[in-house]
Amino acid sequence: MTTRTSSRNSVLWSIEGPDCPGTSYLMGTMHVRDRRAFNRWQQVIQKVETCEVFAAEIQIEQLKSLPRALPAVEPLHRLLPVRKFQKLRRQLRKGAGIDIESCDYLPPVLILQLIDEALLARDYPASLDESLWDYAKMQGKELLGLETVDAQFDFLRQLNSTFQVGQLLEVGSRWPRHRRQAMRMAALYEAEEIDRLYQSARQGAGKIRKTLLLQRNEHMARSLSGLLRSQTVFCAVGAAHLGGGKGLLRLLKKDGFKVKPVPPT
């Protein structure tokens, strides 16, 4: 495992404040089953047990049903000429084992997420965020989402389809590079380098970074702040949302909370 060298290199943070009923926690996760994402599992579930509420970006049951609940979107095969679509289909079947013909009703941003998941190892039966949700559910915790399904719909509607499709085509044509990037993100997560994870995600988001990261950070920070003042919360969100000048850690500090990294045990 890569050695952490900065006090900010942590995916797990404690949250306290004068109006809080106790210590809460914020964890940055990855939606992968790779063992590198589970390094803190035993320590993290102990923190989950101390809190009254478990909060994720969106309720996991709703997240699983999101593709079926999405309003009609233009299928990918209609956004691309036939030859380009078939070429991309061959590239992704060969590289990631994904047949986009079976999921071309999804917004391209969600197809990109499926590709990234497929590139990494499947060491565990469920992704880290799903596993934490299931554990909290088993412990009888109150389960909440910081965002609603309607908010997710609004977010997806704001994304530029032309830019998303362009990203998919670039992944297909520059497959080795994208694979290296996915591996690099996993390595950064293992090293818990949240600021570099944010910078990498920000760069990858390009023109949609304001919608993809910053606007959602502000919305999630408002939701989380309200919860923290009434209950103890273990909150798990994508690690890219933690760092940066407008990340959740900075926004919570601006709202009067004291956030500190929790060292691994």
- DSSP helix count? 12
The low-pLDDT segments are: 1-5
Shape, principal axes of CA atoms: globular
Succession of helices and strands: EEHEHHHHHEHHHHHEHE
Overall tally of domains: 1
Give me the side-by-side strand order of the main sheet: 4-3-5-2-1-6
Query: How would a crystallographer describe the biggest sheet?
Result: 6 strands, mixed
> What's the gyration radius in Å?
18 Å
- How many angstroms does the end-to-end distance come to? 14 Å
Q: Helix/strand/pairing class, anyone?
A: alpha/beta
Based on DSSP secondary structure assignment, what is the total number of beta strands? 6
Mean pLDDT equals: 88
Q: Helical proportion?
A: 40-55%
Measured by DSSP, the beta-strand proportion falls in 5-15%
What does this molecule look like?
The chain has 12 helices and 6 strands. It is of the alpha/beta class. It has one domain (12-261). The protein has a 6-stranded mixed sheet with strand order 4-3-5-2-1-6, with helices on both faces. A hairpin with a 7-residue loop joins β1 and β2. α4 packs across α8 (161-173). It is globular and about 60 Å long.
